[in-house]
Amino acid sequence: MSVRRLAEDQFQPAAFAFNAENAVWAEKTIMKYPEGRQQSAIIPLMMRAQEQEGWVTRAAIEKIADMLDMAYIRALEVATFYTQFQLNPVGTRAHVQVCGTTPCMLRGAEGLIKVCKSRIHDHAFERNADGTLSWEEVECQGACVNAPMVVIGKDTYEDLTPARLEEIIDAFAAGKGSEVPTGPQIDRVFSAPEGGLTSLLSDEAKAKSVAGKAKAAAEQPSTEAAPEKGEAAKKPSLDDKDRPAGIERPAQPDDLQLISGVGPKIESILHELGIFTFAQVASWHQAERHWVDGYLNFKGRIERDDWVRQAEALAKGGEAEYIKVFGKKPR
Ligand code: FES
């Protein structure tokens, strides 16, 4: 249980007022409640104040209490009880709320927190140098099926890897947060299964899916990731701008099969593309990963297996670093 206090006086502005648009909205919101129950509007009004100012100031709490004819202590109780209210200034471009509850923790939330510590600040609620970013760990946000996830503002970013979260943080830091797609960050529609439906299919599609899976299982007994079967897959062009840059085969290429999901067949395709080293894989941005994923018809497998993080560890310190990061030997 955290202790939630108002920000120090030095951060508190002298006064608060809703801007013109929000003032009209607040009046309408208060009128939605039956006579004598106007105080029930406190939560929406406080949220609107937070959206306007970035956080909930003492002046805002007192102003809203006055508007609703409440004792200040009652409004303070609400502000300090609900953790969605930020009682201190947070990043002006993004306050990243990382879910650390069990499903997200089991699916890699700790890696996301490491990213926040390295890219924003070592401590939660502290802002980065230019005051644009901050972060905190929060409890379950109700998107467990797409764990791990973060919330920024009113949006969720799900099915994350550390590499993808870094890209999202970079976008917000550059003022381009609105360009980042919200929701699942892999090939998933809302909370449907990864890679497409597996149930509630038409009989024909069901038969195709079962036959396709049986065939794939028979053909792929190893741990190597199998390209998805059954659907017409359109390979991206080799001339596409998102194709990762290839290199000449070095005298001693890295053993790409140490990356979970890469077997002999996939390794030879990567070689054909000029991919021979862990460092190359570790440097892939989202567009490049998406291109390779499409080329291999993997439907999100590269993100799910987190090739970039695996390759980063292998490039940095080989098997020893991999064991340090993942707690097990590669493959
Ligand atoms: S545990 Fe993270 S969203 Fe539920």
Automatic annotation (TrEMBL):
CDD domains linked to this entry: TRX_Fd_NuoE
GO molecular function: 2 iron, 2 sulfur cluster binding; metal ion binding; NADH dehydrogenase activity
Annotated SUPFAM superfamilies: Thioredoxin-like (SSF52833)
Pfam family, one: 2Fe-2S_thioredx
Residue spans of biased composition, Basic and acidic residues class: 226-246
Alphabetic keyword roster: 2Fe-2S, Iron, Iron-sulfur, Metal-binding
Catalyzed reactions: a quinone + NADH + 5 H(+)(in) = a quinol + NAD(+) + 4 H(+)(out)
Names of required cofactors: [2Fe-2S] cluster
Region annotated Disordered, chain positions: 212-258
PANTHER family linked to this entry: NADH DEHYDROGENASE [UBIQUINONE] FLAVOPROTEIN 2, MITOCHONDRIAL (PTHR10371:SF3), NADH DEHYDROGENASE UBIQUINONE FLAVOPROTEIN 2, MITOCHONDRIAL (PTHR10371)
Similarity field: Belongs to the complex I 24 kDa subunit family.
Name listed for the protein in its UniProt record: NADH-quinone oxidoreductase chain E 1
Organism encoding this protein: Rhizobium freirei PRF 81
Classification lineage: Bacteria, Pseudomonadati, Pseudomonadota, Alphaproteobacteria, Hyphomicrobiales
